[in-house]
Amino acid sequence: MSAAHAFLQRLGERADDEPTWVAARRQAGAARFEALGFPTKRDEAWKYTDVRRIAEGEFTLADDAELDEARFAALGMPLDAHRLVFVDGVFSAALSDLTDLPDGVSIEPLTTAMRTNHEAIGGAIGRLAGVDFSPFTALNVALSEEGAVVRIGPGVVVDKPIYVVFASRANESARMSHPRVLVMAGARSQSTVVEHYAGEAGAANFTNVVSEVMLERGAIVDHYKLQEASSEDLHVASIHVEQGRDSRFTSFNLNLGGALVRTDLVTDLNAQGAETNYNGLFFVQGRQHVDNHTLVNHNAPNTFSNENYKGILNDRARGVFNGKVVVKRDSQQIEAYQNNANLLLSDRAEIDTKPELEIYADDVKCSHGATTGQLDEDAVFALRTRGIDEQMARGLLTLAFAGEVMDQVRLPGIAERVERAVAGKLPERFNLSDLVEVSDALEEA
Amino acid sequence: MLEVKDLHVTVEGSEILKGLNLTVNPGEVHALMGPNGAGKSTLSAVIAGKDGYEVTSGEVLFEGKNLLEMEIEERALAGILLGFQYPVEIPGVKNIYLLKAALNAQRVARGEEEIPAPEFMKLVREQLSFMKMDGSFLQRAVNEGFSGGEKKRNEILQMLVLQPKLAMLDEIDSGLDIDAMKVVAEGINSLRNADRAILMVTHYQRLLEHIVPDRVHVLVDGRIVKSGDKNLAHELEARGYEWVLEESAA
Ligand SMILES: Nc1ncnc2c1ncn2[C@@H]1O[C@H](COP(=O)(O)OP(=O)(O)OP(=O)(O)O)[C@@H](O)[C@H]1O
Ligand SMILES: [Mg+2]
Description:
- Chain A is α/β, with parallel strands linked by helices.
- Chain A has helices at 3-8, 20-36, 52-55, 69-75, 110-124, 135-143, 377-384, 390-406, 412-425, 432-444, and strands spanning 60-61, 82-87, 90-91, 105-109, 147-152, 162-168, 175-177, 180-185, 190-199, 206-215, 220-228, 234-243, 248-255, 260-269, 275-284, 289-298, 304-313, 318-327, 334-344, 350-359, 364-373.
- In chain A, helix 2 (20-36) packs antiparallel against helix 6, helix 7 (377-384) packs across helix 8 (390-406) and helix 8 (390-406) runs antiparallel to helix 9.
- By secondary structure, chain B is of the alpha/beta class.
- Chain B has a single domain (2-249), classed as Rossmann fold, CATH 3.40.50.
- The site of magnesium ion has 4 residues of chain B, from helix 1.
């Protein structure tokens, strides 16, 4: 039995009261996945990322969302937010907080949304990321059950961030989940959506999520993906964005955890004035592997993209960055900037970075660059001559490297969380919060 | 306080310091002069502990302790501060972070509590205004995009915050405009007291008009070939190094 087939066994395990067309789509996903199989290193897009750990793993679907408050508090962020929580893919009403939703905003678990409005929701889901994007999206279509559906009406400025937590528990046997996230941002609406993947120590689950974000004319969406899976968790995500006229999408793809992590981020800029900003940061150590594949399609004239990805790699960790920009024929007056910088803290760490530009128009302002280096030893020396010990000096410089991306983060809770996590991954005690406090005090004065 | 005894230092296979002797006592200000390439910055680098300088013989003692065995940061914590000839730009590390981390490292080393934020801010602001520097410098990355003169002022700001026992200032006067020279000199003079010592590398008499040295040394080809009082600096200004070279060759 093939690995793909073994995964699809899980299809039959669930009682099926779905509308037939949903079941049919599931079958299509399954058929597609079975035909494609898991990607191998012979597939160009998976050249550096070996998914055998997933293919050869045995995972079951979770049936419960049990997680007590204390365990949840250890994973989640104390954000003042509208909160949806999933535990190993299963919705937890107890941990969610959807009281006081403003008018014009709906935030629901996928199952609820499908029950009440299956045609509208079912029609939207899969529009940007169907079965053909990758074997994993096909697998997701086959096995997905739950997820988050966010709909924001025209002109609505959502008062608080929308915080979607996917908790991965330390289970006795490994679980898998195939969540969906759907964000439909109405014209001129403004919102912040946080997808937070957090794993308990010892968790060894497989998450295969597909997110779709649709921005209508003039909509503004800040999208955070904060991935803090456990060091044994396997994580595959694909985020697909569609932008209408004058809309603005800003992505923060922040990866700190996981044993094997792959994220695809794809944006279609479909109308004039659309702007997308990709900010990425990953910090990996041990034998972690993080792969980011990003793609911006400039499908319309007068569209703008700006990308800045930074990677910090320690020990024997491995990173992959592939950033592609496609400018369609007749898409004139395009600006597309891309930068990828990587910091190797160990000489056994490795990064493969590849910018790809495909430009079929001539009025295009475009730049890209990729650098990989070590910490500046002159700077380490200069700091040490001021009495700062070597670990601290390296820590400060590592944080400084991450800072350029972190400075763009507009949600203070996240910036602080990531800075602490980065500092916490540094070899020694590092009293960052104290420094930040001083800096803030200064700004206020 | 500082004793350099018959110091021989090799850089990438060639000998740069060739038996250098120098003693600096508490309370003294010494000026180290000499032609380009003589080894002045090499001496500061060796005292600070920079990699790539091989001490083939001789010793350096600081308050009686063997400096050459100490880590770079230990030397700083012992009370030595090097003001760089070319201060390093450190993108992303705010000036304020550096100052706080450095000051706290000192306090922790002395077994004291870390400095509370308000107290720290007060101290830094005072020194900042003493150096006639704008508050925005604190939020900027260390030396990044600073003008030449601003970098030098920033070195002195660090010195004032850290209050070293021995400050080694390498061409702190280069790149300073006339007013900045006064400010920097005032900063340095404010540090002078009976317990501290200052070793200044300079090419010009002008700095020494503001900071009158107790001793002036001429370093030529890896050795101190002549020492004297402040009048030696005047003489060098007037006559150049030729005569010193001739005298030492004789
Ligand atoms: N890393 C190095 N590799 C090779 N030679 C070096 C190195 N560092 C210093 N030197 C050489 O050592 C000699 C002394 O240099 P040093 O910087 O100490 O001179 P200095 O007296 O400070 O000169 P200046 O007045 O120009 O600053 C020079 O000839 C210089 O080229
Ligand atoms: Mg020099």
